[in-house]
Protein backbone atom coordinates (compact mmCIF):
# COMPACT_ATOMS: atom_id res chain seq x y z
CA UNK A 1 0.00 0.00 0.00
CA UNK A 2 1.12 3.53 -0.73
CA UNK A 3 0.17 6.55 1.33
CA UNK A 4 -0.11 9.62 -0.88
CA UNK A 5 -0.04 12.96 0.91
CA UNK A 6 -0.74 15.76 -1.56
CA UNK A 7 -0.04 19.19 -0.08
CA UNK A 8 -2.38 21.01 -2.45
CA UNK A 9 -5.60 20.47 -4.36
CA UNK A 10 -3.75 20.42 -7.69
CA UNK A 11 -1.42 17.71 -6.39
CA UNK A 12 -4.40 15.70 -5.20
CA UNK A 13 -6.04 15.87 -8.64
CA UNK A 14 -2.78 14.87 -10.31
CA UNK A 15 -2.40 11.92 -7.92
CA UNK A 16 -5.99 10.79 -8.54
CA UNK A 17 -5.43 11.04 -12.30
CA UNK A 18 -2.30 8.96 -12.05
CA UNK A 19 -3.89 6.41 -9.70
CA UNK A 20 -7.63 6.33 -10.40
CA UNK A 21 -8.12 3.45 -7.95
CA UNK A 22 -6.54 5.41 -5.09
CA UNK A 23 -8.97 5.71 -2.19
CA UNK A 24 -9.30 9.26 -0.85
CA UNK A 25 -9.29 9.47 2.93
CA UNK A 26 -10.67 12.55 4.68
CA UNK A 27 -12.01 11.96 8.22
CA UNK A 28 -11.41 8.25 7.74
CA UNK A 29 -14.56 7.34 9.64
CA UNK A 30 -15.74 5.10 6.80
CA UNK A 31 -12.42 4.23 5.17
CA UNK A 32 -10.55 3.20 8.33
CA UNK A 33 -13.34 0.90 9.48
CA UNK A 34 -13.05 -0.94 6.18
CA UNK A 35 -9.27 -1.16 6.44
CA UNK A 36 -9.27 -2.19 10.11
CA UNK A 37 -11.63 -5.03 9.27
CA UNK A 38 -9.77 -5.97 6.13
CA UNK A 39 -12.80 -5.31 3.95
CA UNK A 40 -10.69 -3.09 1.80
CA UNK A 41 -7.00 -3.15 0.92
CA UNK A 42 -6.49 -0.31 -1.55
CA UNK A 43 -3.20 0.02 -3.37
CA UNK A 44 -3.10 3.73 -2.61
CA UNK A 45 -4.58 5.84 0.14
CA UNK A 46 -4.91 9.49 -0.84
CA UNK A 47 -4.84 11.63 2.30
CA UNK A 48 -6.82 14.86 1.94
CA UNK A 49 -6.10 16.21 5.44
CA UNK A 50 -3.25 18.47 4.37
CA UNK A 51 -5.42 20.40 1.92
CA UNK A 52 -6.61 23.21 4.15
CA UNK A 53 -9.17 24.66 1.76
CA UNK A 54 -11.27 21.49 1.97
CA UNK A 55 -12.07 22.37 5.59
CA UNK A 56 -13.24 25.88 4.75
CA UNK A 57 -16.58 27.28 3.62
CA UNK A 58 -17.73 30.46 1.91
CA UNK A 59 -21.15 32.00 2.33
CA UNK A 60 -22.43 33.65 -0.85
CA UNK A 61 -25.68 35.50 -1.51
CA UNK A 62 -27.66 32.34 -2.33
CA UNK A 63 -25.49 29.37 -1.44
CA UNK A 64 -22.92 28.11 1.00
CA UNK A 65 -19.90 26.56 -0.67
CA UNK A 66 -19.01 23.89 1.85
CA UNK A 67 -15.52 22.39 1.53
CA UNK A 68 -15.65 18.60 1.21
CA UNK A 69 -13.86 17.98 4.53
CA UNK A 70 -15.62 20.50 6.78
CA UNK A 71 -16.36 18.34 9.81
CA UNK A 72 -19.93 17.91 11.07
CA UNK A 73 -19.01 19.65 14.33
CA UNK A 74 -18.08 22.81 12.40
CA UNK A 75 -21.36 22.70 10.47
CA UNK A 76 -23.32 22.44 13.72
CA UNK A 77 -21.41 25.27 15.28
CA UNK A 78 -21.16 27.74 12.42
CA UNK A 79 -23.82 27.09 9.79
CA UNK A 80 -27.00 26.60 11.81
CA UNK A 81 -28.62 29.71 10.31
CA UNK A 82 -27.67 29.17 6.68
CA UNK A 83 -28.05 25.38 6.65
CA UNK A 84 -30.45 24.46 9.46
CA UNK A 85 -31.45 21.10 7.97
CA UNK A 86 -27.87 19.97 7.46
CA UNK A 87 -26.87 21.25 10.92
CA UNK A 88 -29.66 19.21 12.51
CA UNK A 89 -28.69 16.15 10.49
CA UNK A 90 -25.01 16.64 11.43
CA UNK A 91 -25.94 16.63 15.08
CA UNK A 92 -27.47 13.16 14.74
CA UNK A 93 -24.31 11.63 13.26
CA UNK A 94 -22.58 9.18 15.60
CA UNK A 95 -20.69 10.92 18.44
CA UNK A 96 -18.58 14.02 19.06
CA UNK A 97 -15.40 12.14 18.16
CA UNK A 98 -16.82 11.05 14.81
CA UNK A 99 -18.36 14.46 14.11
CA UNK A 100 -14.97 16.07 14.71
CA UNK A 101 -13.54 14.04 11.81
CA UNK A 102 -16.29 13.05 9.40
CA UNK A 103 -17.85 15.42 6.89
CA UNK A 104 -20.18 15.75 3.94
CA UNK A 105 -17.53 14.92 1.30
CA UNK A 106 -17.01 11.53 2.93
CA UNK A 107 -20.75 10.99 3.32
CA UNK A 108 -21.16 11.66 -0.41
CA UNK A 109 -18.14 9.51 -1.24
CA UNK A 110 -19.66 6.56 0.60
CA UNK A 111 -23.15 7.40 -0.73
CA UNK A 112 -24.79 5.04 1.72
CA UNK A 113 -28.58 5.26 1.60
CA UNK A 114 -28.33 5.74 5.40
CA UNK A 115 -25.97 8.72 5.23
CA UNK A 116 -27.54 11.50 7.27
CA UNK A 117 -26.37 14.43 5.15
CA UNK A 118 -28.29 13.22 2.10
CA UNK A 119 -31.91 13.95 3.10
CA UNK A 120 -30.86 17.43 4.22
CA UNK A 121 -28.98 18.11 0.97
CA UNK A 122 -31.89 16.84 -1.15
CA UNK A 123 -34.38 19.00 0.74
CA UNK A 124 -32.28 22.15 0.70
CA UNK A 125 -31.15 21.78 -2.90
CA UNK A 126 -27.45 21.35 -3.64
CA UNK A 127 -24.81 20.76 -6.27
CA UNK A 128 -21.63 18.75 -5.89
CA UNK A 129 -18.50 20.43 -7.22
CA UNK A 130 -16.52 17.54 -8.69
CA UNK A 131 -13.13 18.12 -10.21
CA UNK A 132 -10.44 16.20 -12.05
CA UNK A 133 -7.41 17.24 -14.09
CA UNK A 134 -9.90 17.34 -16.97
CA UNK A 135 -11.92 20.12 -15.39
CA UNK A 136 -14.76 20.94 -13.02
CA UNK A 137 -18.40 19.92 -13.23
CA UNK A 138 -21.37 20.68 -11.03
CA UNK A 139 -23.47 17.59 -10.33
CA UNK A 140 -27.03 18.30 -9.16
CA UNK A 141 -27.63 16.43 -5.91
CA UNK A 142 -30.63 14.64 -7.46
CA UNK A 143 -28.31 13.09 -10.03
CA UNK A 144 -25.47 12.28 -7.63
CA UNK A 145 -26.73 9.03 -6.09
CA UNK A 146 -26.68 6.34 -8.75
CA UNK A 147 -27.12 3.10 -6.80
CA UNK A 148 -26.51 1.41 -3.47
CA UNK A 149 -23.27 3.04 -2.29
CA UNK A 150 -22.65 4.33 -5.78
CA UNK A 151 -22.28 7.89 -6.91
CA UNK A 152 -21.79 9.85 -10.11
CA UNK A 153 -18.07 10.54 -9.61
CA UNK A 154 -15.69 9.45 -12.36
CA UNK A 155 -12.65 7.43 -11.22
CA UNK A 156 -10.32 10.41 -11.60
CA UNK A 157 -12.64 12.89 -9.87
CA UNK A 158 -12.60 14.27 -6.35
CA UNK A 159 -15.25 16.27 -4.53
CA UNK A 160 -13.95 19.74 -3.85
CA UNK A 161 -17.04 21.29 -2.29
CA UNK A 162 -20.80 21.12 -2.07
CA UNK A 163 -22.83 24.18 -2.98
CA UNK A 164 -25.92 24.18 -0.79
CA UNK A 165 -28.82 26.62 -1.13
CA UNK A 166 -29.04 28.87 1.90
CA UNK A 167 -32.26 28.37 3.81
CA UNK A 168 -35.01 30.77 2.73
CA UNK A 169 -37.46 29.21 5.18
CA UNK A 170 -37.70 26.68 8.01
CA UNK A 171 -36.05 23.26 7.63
CA UNK A 172 -36.26 20.08 9.67
CA UNK A 173 -34.55 16.72 9.88
CA UNK A 174 -35.92 13.65 11.59
CA UNK A 175 -34.26 10.28 12.14
CA UNK A 176 -35.46 7.01 13.62
CA UNK A 177 -32.98 4.96 15.62
CA UNK A 178 -32.66 3.03 18.84
CA UNK A 179 -30.89 5.80 20.75
CA UNK A 180 -29.80 9.36 20.24
CA UNK A 181 -26.09 8.83 19.76
CA UNK A 182 -24.18 6.40 17.58
CA UNK A 183 -27.07 5.24 15.50
CA UNK A 184 -27.30 4.40 11.84
CA UNK A 185 -30.69 5.60 10.70
CA UNK A 186 -33.46 3.03 10.47
CA UNK A 187 -34.87 5.73 8.25
CA UNK A 188 -34.67 9.51 8.08
CA UNK A 189 -36.55 12.42 6.57
CA UNK A 190 -35.51 15.95 5.67
CA UNK A 191 -37.91 18.73 4.75
CA UNK A 192 -37.33 22.32 3.66
CA UNK A 193 -39.88 25.05 3.05
CA UNK A 194 -38.85 27.42 0.27
CA UNK A 195 -41.20 30.40 0.62
CA UNK A 196 -39.25 32.26 -2.05
CA UNK A 197 -40.37 29.81 -4.73
CA UNK A 198 -43.49 28.65 -2.88
CA UNK A 199 -42.20 25.09 -2.86
CA UNK A 200 -41.49 22.32 -0.40
CA UNK A 201 -38.60 19.90 -0.92
CA UNK A 202 -37.92 16.62 0.82
CA UNK A 203 -35.27 13.95 1.22
CA UNK A 204 -35.67 10.36 2.41
CA UNK A 205 -32.83 8.36 3.95
CA UNK A 206 -32.45 4.62 4.47
CA UNK A 207 -35.72 3.66 2.83
CA UNK A 208 -34.65 3.03 -0.77
CA UNK A 209 -31.47 1.86 -2.56
CA UNK A 210 -30.34 5.50 -2.68
CA UNK A 211 -31.34 8.66 -0.87
CA UNK A 212 -34.40 9.98 -2.74
CA UNK A 213 -36.83 12.86 -2.79
CA UNK A 214 -40.53 12.20 -2.28
CA UNK A 215 -41.36 13.84 -5.57
CA UNK A 216 -45.05 12.93 -5.86
CA UNK A 217 -45.60 14.09 -2.30
CA UNK A 218 -43.84 17.38 -3.05
CA UNK A 219 -45.91 17.97 -6.18
CA UNK A 220 -49.16 17.24 -4.40
CA UNK A 221 -48.29 19.50 -1.47
CA UNK A 222 -47.04 22.35 -3.63
CA UNK A 223 -50.29 22.32 -5.59
CA UNK A 224 -52.44 22.06 -2.45
CA UNK A 225 -50.63 24.91 -0.70
CA UNK A 226 -50.88 27.02 -3.81
CA UNK A 227 -54.57 26.35 -4.34
CA UNK A 228 -55.48 27.10 -0.74
CA UNK A 229 -53.39 30.27 -0.67
CA UNK A 230 -51.59 28.85 2.36
CA UNK A 231 -48.29 30.64 1.71
CA UNK A 232 -50.13 33.98 1.85
CA UNK A 233 -52.75 33.37 4.51
CA UNK A 234 -50.46 31.28 6.73
CA UNK A 235 -53.35 29.06 7.82
CA UNK A 236 -52.78 25.72 9.47
CA UNK A 237 -52.41 23.06 6.79
CA UNK A 238 -55.62 21.06 6.46
CA UNK A 239 -55.18 17.64 8.16
CA UNK A 240 -56.36 15.82 5.04
CA UNK A 241 -53.62 17.55 3.02
CA UNK A 242 -50.96 16.62 5.59
CA UNK A 243 -52.26 13.06 5.61
CA UNK A 244 -52.14 12.73 1.86
CA UNK A 245 -48.63 14.21 1.85
CA UNK A 246 -47.53 11.60 4.42
CA UNK A 247 -49.05 8.76 2.40
CA UNK A 248 -47.32 9.89 -0.77
CA UNK A 249 -44.01 10.19 1.10
CA UNK A 250 -44.46 6.61 2.31
CA UNK A 251 -45.12 5.62 -1.25
CA UNK A 252 -41.83 7.10 -2.39
CA UNK A 253 -39.97 4.47 -0.36
CA UNK A 254 -38.75 1.15 -1.66
CA UNK A 255 -37.24 -0.19 1.54
CA UNK A 256 -35.87 -3.58 2.50
CA UNK A 257 -36.12 -5.70 5.64
CA UNK A 258 -32.84 -5.74 7.50
CA UNK A 259 -31.46 -5.95 11.03
CA UNK A 260 -32.39 -2.35 11.73
CA UNK A 261 -36.03 -2.56 10.71
CA UNK A 262 -38.59 -4.04 8.38
CA UNK A 263 -39.66 -2.52 5.10
CA UNK A 264 -43.20 -2.07 6.42
CA UNK A 265 -41.95 -0.22 9.51
CA UNK A 266 -39.76 2.05 7.39
CA UNK A 267 -42.67 2.94 5.10
CA UNK A 268 -44.82 3.72 8.10
CA UNK A 269 -42.15 5.73 9.91
CA UNK A 270 -41.33 7.82 6.85
CA UNK A 271 -44.99 8.81 6.63
CA UNK A 272 -45.01 9.81 10.28
CA UNK A 273 -41.81 11.83 9.92
CA UNK A 274 -43.13 13.52 6.78
CA UNK A 275 -46.26 14.66 8.60
CA UNK A 276 -44.32 15.79 11.67
CA UNK A 277 -41.57 17.69 9.87
CA UNK A 278 -44.22 19.41 7.76
CA UNK A 279 -46.09 20.37 10.94
CA UNK A 280 -42.97 21.69 12.68
CA UNK A 281 -41.70 23.72 9.75
CA UNK A 282 -45.13 25.11 8.90
CA UNK A 283 -45.64 26.17 12.52
CA UNK A 284 -42.30 27.97 12.36
CA UNK A 285 -43.25 29.59 9.05
CA UNK A 286 -46.51 30.82 10.51
CA UNK A 287 -44.70 32.23 13.53
CA UNK A 288 -41.76 33.91 11.86
CA UNK A 289 -41.47 33.11 8.20
CA UNK A 290 -44.08 35.45 6.84
CA UNK A 291 -43.13 38.46 8.95
CA UNK A 292 -39.45 37.89 8.22
CA UNK A 293 -40.19 37.64 4.56
CA UNK A 294 -42.29 40.78 4.66
CA UNK A 295 -39.52 42.68 6.35
CA UNK A 296 -36.81 41.55 3.97
CA UNK B 1 6.81 4.33 6.02
CA UNK B 2 8.14 6.75 8.60
CA UNK B 3 5.83 9.00 10.60
CA UNK B 4 6.89 12.03 12.64
CA UNK B 5 4.55 13.55 15.15
CA UNK B 6 4.38 14.85 18.69
CA UNK B 7 2.97 12.72 21.48
CA UNK B 8 2.32 14.36 24.82
CA UNK B 9 4.66 17.22 24.00
CA UNK B 10 7.53 15.06 22.78
CA UNK B 11 8.62 14.73 19.17
CA UNK B 12 8.54 11.14 18.00
CA UNK B 13 9.76 9.35 14.93
CA UNK B 14 8.30 5.97 14.12
CA UNK B 15 9.60 3.67 11.42
CA UNK B 16 8.16 0.70 9.55
CA UNK B 17 4.60 1.87 9.89
CA UNK B 18 2.27 0.05 7.53
CA UNK B 19 0.36 2.54 5.36
CA UNK B 20 -3.06 1.26 6.41
CA UNK B 21 -2.25 1.28 10.11
CA UNK B 22 -4.26 3.34 12.58
CA UNK B 23 -2.83 5.94 14.93
CA UNK B 24 -4.11 3.75 17.77
CA UNK B 25 -2.04 0.79 16.60
CA UNK B 26 1.07 2.93 16.26
CA UNK B 27 0.60 4.40 19.74
CA UNK B 28 -0.01 1.07 21.43
CA UNK B 29 2.04 -1.43 19.50
CA UNK B 30 4.93 0.58 18.11
CA UNK B 31 5.46 3.31 20.68
CA UNK B 32 4.50 1.74 23.98
CA UNK B 33 1.61 4.01 24.88
CA UNK B 34 -0.93 1.40 25.96
CA UNK B 35 -3.20 3.93 27.68
CA UNK B 36 -5.52 4.36 24.72
CA UNK B 37 -7.52 1.16 24.52
CA UNK B 38 -8.52 -0.91 21.56
CA UNK B 39 -11.98 -2.37 21.89
CA UNK B 40 -13.88 -2.09 18.64
CA UNK B 41 -11.63 -0.55 15.98
CA UNK B 42 -14.73 0.97 14.41
CA UNK B 43 -15.36 4.22 16.21
CA UNK B 44 -18.20 2.86 18.32
CA UNK B 45 -16.73 2.72 21.82
CA UNK B 46 -14.46 5.75 22.24
CA UNK B 47 -11.94 3.87 24.39
CA UNK B 48 -9.22 4.95 21.94
CA UNK B 49 -10.04 8.68 22.23
CA UNK B 50 -7.04 11.02 21.97
CA UNK B 51 -6.66 14.71 21.19
CA UNK B 52 -5.39 15.35 17.67
CA UNK B 53 -4.28 18.99 17.46
CA UNK B 54 -6.56 19.54 20.43
CA UNK B 55 -9.61 17.82 18.94
CA UNK B 56 -10.99 14.62 20.51
CA UNK B 57 -10.98 11.84 17.92
CA UNK B 58 -11.10 8.06 17.78
CA UNK B 59 -7.47 7.17 17.16
CA UNK B 60 -8.56 3.85 15.65
CA UNK B 61 -10.03 5.81 12.71
CA UNK B 62 -7.08 8.11 12.07
CA UNK B 63 -4.60 6.67 9.58
CA UNK B 64 -1.12 6.87 11.07
CA UNK B 65 0.08 8.89 8.11
CA UNK B 66 -2.59 11.49 8.81
CA UNK B 67 -0.91 12.25 12.15
CA UNK B 68 2.29 13.36 10.41
CA UNK B 69 3.47 16.66 11.87
CA UNK B 70 0.57 16.86 14.30
CA UNK B 71 0.14 16.99 18.07
CA UNK B 72 -1.35 14.02 19.87
CA UNK B 73 -2.29 13.93 23.54
CA UNK B 74 -3.07 10.55 25.09
CA UNK B 75 -4.22 9.69 28.59
CA UNK B 76 -0.56 9.21 29.52
CA UNK B 77 -0.01 12.93 28.94
CA UNK B 78 -3.29 14.17 30.35
CA UNK B 79 -1.91 15.30 33.73
CA UNK B 80 0.86 17.32 32.08
CA UNK B 81 -1.57 18.67 29.55
CA UNK B 82 -3.94 19.82 32.29
CA UNK B 83 -1.08 21.31 34.31
CA UNK B 84 0.19 23.18 31.28
CA UNK B 85 -3.28 24.51 30.66
CA UNK B 86 -3.48 25.83 34.20
CA UNK B 87 0.01 27.34 34.12
CA UNK B 88 0.06 28.82 30.67
CA UNK B 89 -3.62 29.58 30.11
CA UNK B 90 -5.25 29.87 33.52
CA UNK B 91 -9.00 29.67 33.38
CA UNK B 92 -9.14 29.15 29.64
CA UNK B 93 -7.23 26.46 27.85
CA UNK B 94 -4.86 25.69 25.11
CA UNK B 95 -7.36 24.47 22.61
CA UNK B 96 -4.86 23.24 20.08
CA UNK B 97 -2.28 21.79 22.44
CA UNK B 98 0.20 23.35 20.09
CA UNK B 99 0.84 26.74 21.63
CA UNK B 100 4.60 26.31 21.65
CA UNK B 101 5.33 25.76 25.32
CA UNK B 102 6.77 22.31 25.76
CA UNK B 103 4.23 20.21 27.59
CA UNK B 104 5.20 19.55 31.17
CA UNK B 105 8.68 20.76 30.24
CA UNK B 106 9.61 17.44 28.77
CA UNK B 107 8.52 15.43 31.74
CA UNK B 108 8.17 12.04 30.23
CA UNK B 109 5.11 10.05 30.98
CA UNK B 110 5.91 7.41 28.48
CA UNK B 111 4.86 4.03 29.71
CA UNK B 112 7.74 2.06 31.07
CA UNK B 113 9.48 4.89 32.85
CA UNK B 114 8.00 3.54 36.04
CA UNK B 115 7.00 6.97 37.24
CA UNK B 116 3.34 6.34 37.64
CA UNK B 117 3.12 8.17 40.92
CA UNK B 118 3.09 11.75 39.73
CA UNK B 119 0.18 14.03 40.28
CA UNK B 120 -3.00 13.23 38.42
CA UNK B 121 -5.06 15.66 36.38
CA UNK B 122 -8.16 17.00 38.13
CA UNK B 123 -10.43 14.82 36.02
CA UNK B 124 -8.42 11.70 36.84
CA UNK B 125 -8.58 12.48 40.55
CA UNK B 126 -12.33 13.10 40.29
CA UNK B 127 -12.86 9.71 38.57
CA UNK B 128 -11.10 8.01 41.48
CA UNK B 129 -12.89 10.03 44.15
CA UNK B 130 -16.31 9.48 42.61
CA UNK B 131 -15.76 5.75 42.13
CA UNK B 132 -16.14 6.05 38.38
CA UNK B 133 -13.60 3.34 37.60
CA UNK B 134 -14.48 -0.33 37.68
CA UNK B 135 -12.60 -2.52 35.21
CA UNK B 136 -11.05 0.69 33.87
CA UNK B 137 -11.05 -0.26 30.23
CA UNK B 138 -13.22 2.65 29.14
CA UNK B 139 -11.55 5.10 31.52
CA UNK B 140 -8.70 6.50 29.39
CA UNK B 141 -11.04 7.46 26.55
CA UNK B 142 -13.58 8.93 28.92
CA UNK B 143 -10.88 10.95 30.70
CA UNK B 144 -9.64 12.48 27.47
CA UNK B 145 -13.19 13.32 26.36
CA UNK B 146 -14.24 14.67 29.77
CA UNK B 147 -11.08 16.76 30.12
CA UNK B 148 -11.81 18.41 26.79
CA UNK B 149 -15.38 19.13 27.86
CA UNK B 150 -14.19 20.89 31.01
CA UNK B 151 -11.67 22.85 28.97
CA UNK B 152 -14.28 24.20 26.56
CA UNK B 153 -17.28 24.32 28.93
CA UNK B 154 -16.12 24.89 32.48
CA UNK B 155 -19.66 24.61 33.92
CA UNK B 156 -21.37 21.98 31.81
CA UNK B 157 -25.01 21.07 32.31
CA UNK B 158 -25.94 17.41 32.71
CA UNK B 159 -27.10 17.50 29.11
CA UNK B 160 -23.70 18.87 28.03
CA UNK B 161 -21.93 16.06 29.90
CA UNK B 162 -24.11 13.36 28.38
CA UNK B 163 -23.61 14.81 24.93
CA UNK B 164 -19.83 15.12 25.32
CA UNK B 165 -19.51 11.53 26.54
CA UNK B 166 -22.04 10.03 24.14
CA UNK B 167 -19.24 8.51 22.05
CA UNK B 168 -17.76 6.56 24.97
CA UNK B 169 -19.17 3.21 26.06
CA UNK B 170 -18.77 1.71 29.53
CA UNK B 171 -19.93 -1.82 30.25
CA UNK B 172 -19.44 -1.67 34.04
CA UNK B 173 -20.51 1.47 35.81
CA UNK B 174 -23.90 2.30 34.40
CA UNK B 175 -22.50 5.79 33.80
CA UNK B 176 -23.95 7.42 36.93
CA UNK B 177 -20.61 7.56 38.74
CA UNK B 178 -18.96 8.81 35.59
CA UNK B 179 -21.42 11.69 35.43
CA UNK B 180 -20.75 12.28 39.14
CA UNK B 181 -17.02 12.42 38.47
CA UNK B 182 -17.39 15.03 35.75
CA UNK B 183 -19.70 17.11 37.95
CA UNK B 184 -17.16 16.83 40.77
CA UNK B 185 -14.28 17.94 38.58
CA UNK B 186 -16.35 20.85 37.28
CA UNK B 187 -17.28 21.91 40.82
CA UNK B 188 -13.66 21.74 41.96
CA UNK B 189 -12.59 23.72 38.93
CA UNK B 190 -15.15 26.43 39.72
CA UNK B 191 -13.98 26.46 43.32
CA UNK B 192 -10.39 26.95 42.20
CA UNK B 193 -11.28 29.83 39.91
CA UNK B 194 -13.19 31.60 42.67
C1 LIG C 1 -19.13 4.68 14.82
C2 LIG C 1 -19.62 5.33 13.55
C3 LIG C 1 -20.89 5.87 13.51
C4 LIG C 1 -21.36 6.48 12.35
N1 LIG C 1 -22.60 7.02 12.37
C5 LIG C 1 -23.05 7.66 11.27
C6 LIG C 1 -24.31 8.30 11.30
O1 LIG C 1 -25.01 8.33 12.33
N2 LIG C 1 -24.74 8.91 10.17
C7 LIG C 1 -23.98 8.94 9.03
O2 LIG C 1 -24.39 9.53 8.04
N3 LIG C 1 -22.77 8.35 8.98
C8 LIG C 1 -22.29 7.71 10.08
N4 LIG C 1 -21.06 7.10 10.02
C9 LIG C 1 -20.31 7.07 8.75
C10 LIG C 1 -19.31 8.20 8.53
O3 LIG C 1 -18.94 8.82 9.74
C11 LIG C 1 -19.86 9.26 7.57
O4 LIG C 1 -20.21 8.66 6.35
C12 LIG C 1 -18.89 10.40 7.32
O5 LIG C 1 -19.58 11.43 6.67
C13 LIG C 1 -17.69 10.01 6.48
O6 LIG C 1 -16.86 11.14 6.35
P1 LIG C 1 -15.26 10.99 6.41
O7 LIG C 1 -14.65 12.29 6.10
O8 LIG C 1 -14.84 10.35 7.66
O9 LIG C 1 -15.04 9.99 5.19
P2 LIG C 1 -13.87 8.99 4.82
O10 LIG C 1 -13.97 7.74 5.60
O11 LIG C 1 -12.57 9.69 4.82
O12 LIG C 1 -14.30 8.69 3.32
C14 LIG C 1 -15.54 8.09 3.01
C15 LIG C 1 -15.63 7.80 1.52
O13 LIG C 1 -15.66 9.00 0.78
C16 LIG C 1 -14.54 9.09 -0.09
N5 LIG C 1 -14.11 10.50 -0.05
C17 LIG C 1 -13.82 11.25 1.05
N6 LIG C 1 -13.54 12.52 0.69
C18 LIG C 1 -13.68 12.58 -0.66
C19 LIG C 1 -13.53 13.64 -1.62
N7 LIG C 1 -13.19 14.88 -1.26
N8 LIG C 1 -13.75 13.35 -2.91
C20 LIG C 1 -14.11 12.08 -3.29
N9 LIG C 1 -14.27 11.06 -2.42
C21 LIG C 1 -14.05 11.31 -1.12
C22 LIG C 1 -13.54 8.10 0.45
O14 LIG C 1 -12.67 7.61 -0.53
C23 LIG C 1 -14.45 7.03 0.97
O15 LIG C 1 -14.89 6.20 -0.06
C24 LIG C 1 -20.54 6.51 11.18
C25 LIG C 1 -19.26 5.98 11.23
C26 LIG C 1 -18.78 5.39 12.39
C27 LIG C 1 -17.39 4.86 12.43
S1 LIG D 1 -11.41 1.28 19.54
FE1 LIG D 1 -11.65 3.22 18.61
S2 LIG D 1 -13.69 3.66 19.05
FE2 LIG D 1 -13.54 1.66 19.81
S1 LIG E 1 -15.31 0.63 33.94
FE1 LIG E 1 -15.38 -1.21 32.83
S2 LIG E 1 -16.01 -0.54 30.86
FE2 LIG E 1 -16.16 1.23 32.04
UniProtKB/TrEMBL annotation, chain A:
Which is one Pfam family of this protein?
Answer: CO_deh_flav_C
Determine if Ubl conjugation is one of this entry's keywords. Answer: no
Which residues are in the FAD-binding PCMH-type domain?
Answer: 1-169
Q: Where are the transmembrane segments?
A: none
* Xref: InterPro entries: CO_DH_flav_C, CO_DH_flav_C_dom_sf, Diverse_Substr_Oxidored, FAD-bd_PCMH, FAD-bd_PCMH-like_sf, FAD-bd_PCMH_sub1, FAD-bd_PCMH_sub2, Mopterin_DH_FAD-bd
SMART domains given in the database record: CO_deh_flav_C
Q: Which SUPFAM superfamilies match?
A: CO dehydrogenase flavoprotein C-terminal domain-like (SSF55447), FAD-binding/transporter-associated domain-like (SSF56176)
Keywords for the protein's UniProt record, in alphabetical order: FAD, Flavoprotein, Oxidoreductase
Fetch the PANTHER family from UniProt: XANTHINE DEHYDROGENASE SUBUNIT C-RELATED
State the name under which the record lists this protein: CO/xanthine dehydrogenase FAD-binding subunit
Automatic annotation (TrEMBL), chain B:
Show the InterPro entries listed in the entry. Answer: 2Fe-2S-bd, 2Fe-2S-bd_dom_sf, 2Fe-2S_ferredoxin-like_sf, 2Fe-2S_ferredoxin-type, 2Fe2S_fd_BS, Beta-grasp_dom_sf, Diverse_Oxidoreductases
The record, for SUPFAM superfamilies, names: 2Fe-2S ferredoxin-like, CO dehydrogenase ISP C-domain like
Which keywords annotate this record?
2Fe-2S, Iron, Iron-sulfur, Metal-binding, Oxidoreductase
| All copies of domain 2Fe-2S ferredoxin-type, residue ranges | 1-78
Q: What general EC class does the enzyme of this chain belong to? A: oxidoreductase
Q: Which GO terms describe its molecular function?
A: anaerobic carbon-monoxide dehydrogenase activity
Question: Which N-terminal residues, if any, form the signal peptide?
Answer: none
What's the Enzyme Commission number for this chain?
1.2.7.4
Q: Which domain of life is it from?
A: Bacteria
A Pfam family reported for this protein in Swiss-Prot or TrEMBL: Fer2_2
Q: What is this protein called?
A: Carbon-monoxide dehydrogenase small subunit
Lineage of source species: Bacteria, Bacillati, Actinomycetota, Actinomycetes, Kitasatosporales
